[in-house]
Specification:
The protein is built from 19 helices and two strands. The protein is mainly alpha-helical and 432 residues long. The chain folds into three domains: 144 residues, no CATH class; 147 residues, no CATH class; 113 residues, no CATH class. The chain has a two-stranded antiparallel ribbon. Helix 5 runs antiparallel to helix 6. It is elongated and about 100 Å long. The termini are far apart.
């Protein structure tokens, strides 16, 4: 299978370094770096290293065998090192006065290292001499801040224990395995598939921008961390599906389809578990999905006795508008869902607006949703339009048309709507 990412070994490519930008207000001394014994010492030490380079150590001797190696490309390192140290000291002295001093200094040091290119030959000279000079600081920086800067430099120079770099292709395979396992074909999750297919959740945190390099960086999650995140995502998505909050009419109308989809997904999951090589760490989300599917199937099995009662069979097998004295308008259905949302949590959402509109015999899910949002406002819903008898009469008819449905769906919603209707009728009789 073709992998989406190409991994190149760091030893196999070369990126030239570049000259650092001169800091505003920072002017090199006359006759630099021979302006004083301190800077002369840094330059002489760096030059001594360059004379021996690349025979100075095993790593550089091996680097000299690379096709791209040319010693003259590194001839400017001695002057570059002493110049960067001068710039860095100037930057630190001015940055420590700022509120975000540590972040600024770390970003600037990172920029200085970046100017060495790849491989970052000469970087160790920059770190070594900078640490020595800061340890001999003359008191221009507070001790607590100075110690924190030196600690950071040593950590960057010495480095911690090496950790394996996560393979993006391994992470991709792990995430793709989850995508193909999660039951996105069930009606509850269909709208989410595209969103997750466009996502690659491989970063530990939001990327951090360095204004000096112009680059952003972020740590990549390990495979173990990714799997833990996928388990948590699975649980979160399942928790958001609350069958008891779904409109009773919807459950009745779609119970067989939902039960079929759930059973089909559970079978698919069992087959994948049998044929796929899930790791031990991946099994928790597989187990959670299997148990959730089993619970939902049991729920719909238990609903059969209710669904098969004469009233529910009639509702399930007929149009929702049949046997009603007056077919509710689309606005009336929107008002009906305001009461259902209050007692069942079944409002009209971006996800269900089109389906509900079609079930009620209308084409515009957007209009149904807009009317629902409008009449969620109590003042708007209970405004009788007393200045217009025709509008007032139409509003009363909306309520009268939905009461038979609410009486079958949810008694508390019916009682609340009926109470509001009585208030509207009282206002109507007073004016007309």
């Amino acid at each position: 299978m073709k992998k989406p990412f190409i991994q190149i070994d760091s030893d196999d490519f070369y990126q030239p370094g570049y000259n650092p930008r001169q800091l505003e207000g920072c002017i090199l001394p006359i006759n630099f770096p021979f302006c004083c014994p301190s800077h002369t010492s840094v330059f002489d030490g760096s030059l001594s290293w360059f004379i021996q380079f690349p025979g100075c150590c095993k790593n550089h001797r091996e680097m000299a065998n690379k096709s791209w190696f040319n010693k003259t490309n590194y001839a400017a390192i001695p002057i570059k090192v002493v110049t960067l140290i001068y710039y860095t000291e100037f930057f630190i002295i001015n940055a420590v006065k700022k509120a975000n001093w540590f972040e600024e200094i770390c970003n600037y040091i990172e920029y200085c290292v970046h100017t060495f290119g790849h491989p970052n030959t000469g970087m160790f000279l920059y770190y070594t001499y900078l640490i020595r000079r800061l340890e001999k600081d003359s008191g221009k920086i507070l001790d607590s801040k100075l110690l924190k800067i030196i600690e950071y430099l040593k950590l960057q120079y010495e480095g911690g224990a090496e950790t394996p770099v996560p393979s993006l292709n391994v992470l991709f395979d792990t995430y793709n395995n989850w995508l193909n396992t999660f039951p996105f074909d069930i009606i509850f999750f269909k709208d989410l598939r595209k969103e997750f297919e466009k996502t690659l959740p491989f970063l530990q945190s939001k990327p951090e921008y360095n204004r000096f390099t112009g680059l952003s960086k972020a740590k990549i999650v390990t495979q173990d961390q990714l799997i833990i995140n996928l388990v948590n995502t699975t649980q979160k998505l399942l928790q958001e599906v609350q069958i008891d909050k779904i409109n009773n009419i919807e459950i009745i109308a779609h119970s067989e389809q939902l039960a079929f989809e759930l059973m089909k997904e559970r079978h698919r999951l069992k087959q994948k578990k049998l044929l796929n090589n899930y790791s031990i760490d991946e099994m928790p989300y597989v187990t959670v999905l299997n148990e959730w599917l089993t619970n939902e199937i049991e729920f719909f099995t238990e609903m059969r006795s209710f669904i098969n009662t004469p009233l529910q069979v009639q509702l399930k097998n007929s149009n929702i508008n049949e046997h009603l004295p007056v077919k509710p308008t689309i606005t009336a259905y929107a008002i009906m869902h305001v009461y259902l949302e209050r007692f069942e949590g079944t409002g009209i959402t971006q996800q269900n607006k089109t389906r509900l509109a079609k079930e009620y015999g209308y084409n515009s899910g957007d209009r149904l949703r807009n009317e629902y949002v409008l009449y969620q406002n109590d003042e708007k819903r209970l405004d009788l339009h007393t200045n217009n008898k025709k509008s007032a009469t139409a509003h009363l008819e909306r309520y009268k048309s939905i009461l038979p449905l609410l009486q079958k769906m949810n008694n508390r919603a019916f009682q609340a709507a009926n109470k509001d209707l009585q208030l509207l009728e009282k206002a109507y009789n007073k004016h007309y």
